[in-house]
């Protein structure tokens, strides 16, 4: 399937693979449970109802880390399906282990570049929600080009949302928060949920992770953003 966004090819990645050390449980979970929860790169566009075995709203999380937020929402919202993408295998393994223990059935994961998944695996207007929490801010000026939230990405993400679909973001890096606002407010397919075109209150669904708590101890404010596909 092709569309106006598909030809975009991203040369600079927004992440660096830092594999880290995998525990025995994480590696075992990848071996045992990847066939149940994992999605390999498809030959074409994914048929999400076929992937999940039903037609339901789909929430897509980019960079789920250790998977706490994704699993909590999947378990508490069984009427929705959840698709998470993370490049770091220890986090994927931990999520698979916990998802199996919880008997979670409405969760799928990919270990791949999320931009490639959005661009090549998913069809336009196929997602009900996209969640991006604490993406790497790449604080050094020479690295700003590596930031995930750029105009081309904003257009791509908006195109994959259904009309009325929600894009939710959070960051604890103030300069990146301002950059996000500038980029996303300029995308015509997105409407800022904040009446003043700024930040929104913390959504009830967003867990306070260990990462966020550490940032708060260091005095970092957290900035939430929310946009609707028009």
TrEMBL record:
The cross-references to InterPro entries, in alphabetical order and at most eight, read:
SAM-dependent_MTases_sf, tRNA_(Gua-N-7)_MeTrfase_Trmb, tRNA_methyltr_TrmB_bact
- What Pfam families does this protein map onto? Methyltransf_4 (PF02390)
Instruction: Quote the record's binding site residues for S-adenosyl-L-methionine.
Output: 61, 86, 113, 136
The pathway it acts in is: tRNA modification; N(7)-methylguanine-tRNA biosynthesis
Q: Name one GO cellular component term.
A: tRNA methyltransferase complex
- Keywords assigned by UniProt, alphabetized: Methyltransferase, S-adenosyl-L-methionine, Transferase, tRNA processing
Name listed for the protein in its UniProt record: tRNA (guanine-N(7)-)-methyltransferase
Gene that this sequence comes from: trmB
């Amino acid at each position: 399937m092709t569309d106006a966004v598909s030809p975009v090819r991203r040369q600079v990645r927004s992440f660096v693979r830092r594999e880290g050390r995998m525990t025995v449980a994480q590696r075992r979970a990848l071996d045992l449970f990847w066939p149940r929860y994992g999605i390999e790169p498809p030959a074409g566009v994914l048929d999400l109802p076929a992937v999940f075995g039903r037609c339901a709203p789909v929430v897509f999380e980019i960079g789920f880390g250790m998977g706490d937020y994704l699993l909590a929402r999947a378990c508490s919202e069984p009427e929705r399906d959840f698709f998470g993408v993370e490049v770091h295998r220890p986090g994927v393994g931990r999520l698979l282990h916990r998802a199996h223990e919880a008997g979670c059935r409405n969760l799928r994961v990919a270990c791949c570049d999320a931009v490639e998944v959005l661009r090549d695996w998913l069809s336009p207007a196929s997602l009900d929600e996209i969640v991006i929490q604490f993406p790497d801010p790449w604080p050094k000026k020479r690295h700003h080009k590596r930031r995930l939230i750029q105009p081309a990405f904003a257009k791509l993400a908006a195109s994959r949302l259904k009309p009325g679909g929600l894009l939710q973001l959070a960051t604890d890096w103030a300069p990146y928060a301002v950059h996000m606002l500038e980029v996303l407010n300029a995308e015509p397919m997105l409407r800022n949920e904040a009446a003043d075109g700024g930040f929104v209150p913390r959504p009830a669904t967003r867990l306070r992770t260990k990462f966020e708590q550490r940032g708060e101890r260091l005095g970092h404010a957290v900035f939430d953003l929310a946009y609707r596909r028009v």
